[in-house]
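User: Need the bound-state model for iron/sulfur cluster:
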Amino acid sequence: MSAGDLLLRVEGLRISIPTDDGVAQILDHVDLRIPRGRIVGVVGESGCGKSTLARAVLGILPRAARVDAGRIVFEGEDLLALDQRELTRRIRGKEIGFIPQDPFLALNPTFKVGTQLLEIMRWHAPDGGDGGGGRRGAHRARLLDLLRAVQIADPEAALDRYPHQFSGGQRQRLLIAGALACRPRLVIADEPTTALDVTTQLQILRLLRDLANRFGLSMLFVTHDFGVVAQLCDDVMVMYAGQSVEGGGTAEILERPRHPYTQLLLACHPDRAQDLAGIPGTVASPLAPPPGCRFHPRCPSARPDCAVARPATVVDAGGHAVGCVLYHAGAVPAARPS
Ligand code: SF4
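Assistant: Bound-state model below.
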């Protein structure tokens, strides 16, 4: 794949946050690639750093966070080199849209839905997005189109209603419309279906897939659920304790997982698990991460050299990437857990 086919490239990203108990090493050499028009899932257990990665791309890290190394290249431009003013003016909410996790918290209960969504459009496209006059009309017409696209019934009336007058699923549809309001090229969705019931979750996932196809969007979809990845994502990157450990096409990863963590994560998914044993041990603390491969204290295939250095990532001809010594030249991969 040529660099021109990639919309977003995260390379060797390291982020730490000083705390009263020491420096938390949240991300450690994370790599991610989002090709144009693809939905890429970032999957891992709670606390693995996937939401921090999403926030780093958006430029909304906690004030104390430090970027120790790496690059976030969007359309050929390193976002880490931009100041907050420039990010707000040109990128965040405009080129990169955001769908938050909780539709019950993300909308202001004191303002009508139309007021809130139109404000986003006025902020990022003061000329109405059509290069000239009639901005109010242009914004309103685009918003009504978007509300139809996200399947909100009676869009005209919806603009005059308050958030509490919508169900959770409808509110998430409104937030999706807000994320698309300024015609972004990339949409970041941070567990947007976690707060919804299973039926509504499925509807939202189908809607996101339809919208991505219709508008030619790329999407970074953060989730802890491999079932969601299987339903929605073209590609997936697996994270463990702040490290990217495996990535590639979703079908390939689901059928032929290579990293021991991915294999165990899939083996204990409710759709596949034969028992509820889970993965032994606990996720490493970012305050004291194990040296080398951070999974080594829990890995059934660990060898002495796993604790020495972070394993290099090897990528096969099909783009399947894995960071594990078992796949280094001359190594014999371990058997996959049943
Ligand atoms: Fe297990 Fe070693 Fe591979 Fe890490 S590098 S996943 S500890 S075998």
